[in-house]
Amino acid sequence: MVKDLVYLIPAGKYGKEEIASLLTNHPEIKFASLVGIDLAGNDTDEKIPIELFIKDMDDFYNGTAVQTDGSSVVLTGIAVLNNAKVDMLADASVNWFVDYNFEHIDEETGKPIGTLRIPAYLVHNGLRVDSRSILAQSLEYIKGELLDLFKKNAKIAGLEHINGADVEDIIFTSATELEFWVKTPANTADVEDLSASQLMQEQYWQRTRGSVRTAMEQALMMMKNYGLEPEMGHKEVGGIKAQIDETGHLNHVMEQLEIDWKFSNALQCADNELQTRILVKEAFRANGLEVTFKAKPIIGVAGSGEHTHVGFAAKLTSGKVVNLFSPTNMKQYFLSAIGYGAIMGLLKHYEVINPFISATNDSLNRLKPGFEAPVCIVTSLGHNPATPSRNRTILAGLVRDVNSPMATRFEVRSPNPYTNTYTALTAFYMSMVDGIKAAVNSGKTIEELDAELSKDAGKEGFYLETDRAYRSEHDVFDDYSAEERDRLFSKPPATVWENMQNIKKYPEKVKTLTAGNAFRQELIEAFSAGALVRWKAELLNRIIPENLSIVKEAKALHEADSASDLDLTNWDKINTIRVYLAKDCMLQKSLFTRIKEAIQAGDFDAVSEMQIEMSDKVGELEILYREYKKNMIHIC
Fold this sequence. Notes:
Distance between the termini: 54 Å
Shape: globular
Largest sheet: 10 strands, mixed
Structural class: alpha+beta
Strand content: 15-25%
Number of helices: 19
Helix content: 40-55%
Radius of gyration: 26 Å
């Protein structure tokens, strides 16, 4: 660590002249960079000499200093080739972080070269079109709706301890938990070894060692420097024991880790996550380790989630802050009317929220039964209010502490590290406020709201859909069949195409997200179009070629004159799948070819169906080949 570095410029602490003076007094900060977030969650980064930033600071604040080519980022159908100019507008309402290059030392000061990263909005044709703007403007709309709700309702069920007229401001409390895999470059691990270690629970919360421990400690210490207030770093469920080489260093590292940090307001939460990912990658890279934030880097082994916590608080005229989800009597009730409405709104609209959570092939690979990842739309509150419990098999669970009302929140378990947290939080909060308004305006008691959330499928509700159930305190993986889950809690999409089609299938639910005109319809359509472009490109250029490699690597290992009947039978099964997947014949084209042709023809329903079949066939091929290879090894 280098002393006397400026790691962040806190929101609202300095005026323009003070910022200029601070930067002048720290000549190691050589560059400024406006950080805009496109609709896929990608952040922009450029190097502007700090002297130009100081000289033209007013232009950075009003959005005239920096422009970018919007057709080169994910603003699909908005910033097009013949109308691509996008202005970048600095956001002074959040923290600004300084990103240091510890491999490039300033000769004058002896300190690492720094780049001031300034969160920004992207403006096209006078309208904001970026993910940060969608969240910031949606939160302003929601705040207005809730303040109006409190003005009209002096007393709300479950919140008898506050008066609506005393509510001065609304606070959006949010946090994410970052899971990721680390490994030594070029090393791989056998899926069976990883799976066995997971089943035997050998990794979770175990002691970290060597370079992994060093990198984890450095990342946590650096987070503290940036004011991110880390709470915990630990090993997750995935991984295998590393080996020690002849020099005493660990190699063949393959471990899953998690880092958690404190809550903040929703917009700052998303910015903090972006900075944390940078710090984690740099800390582990400096220790010779690769980091991946993919949701499912290894098929058949635990994926990485990014559980997202959401809540509402109110600031009263007295200055006191109260949690709006917590009821007056924590031991008698699970939630206030605000809390019940919030979870009902999220669950009712999840079909159109899900596209913004799982927009990639990778993200949907994670959401499969058996890996503690949610597969259906259902919540859990606990077995009784007095003794909080946790159900890890559901989509969104209530987190509460009877003795700490400020801790009450919902943990949404479906996001992954590459989920765009800005649009995810937007979708969560916009759907929640719809349910909150319905619950409060219904005038129903806490008992009646609990009955609505807990109703059986087929029973009509005042807000929730009749044919669905929304709450279960059971293990939804083991206590229900797949058919029961689909019937009670909605069938989950299996492909990106299926997921994006829900935006067209449920227009009334989409209207909830677009209320307030922040998450505008054209932005939702642009998000979906961009996701589908990437879906098709990945199928053609990554998934099919990777699967073709799997087919080619499945080679015959037996000799015809010495093979057993079992070897021949196993190989016949394997080769039949290989041919079906990859070999074109006169009478039948391969599955790979048919997928390519369907993409070219624009028949995406067929592409989606064949993608599911391809995934099943490749998985079957890998299992059969492992068994075949084991038998061949045994006789060698």
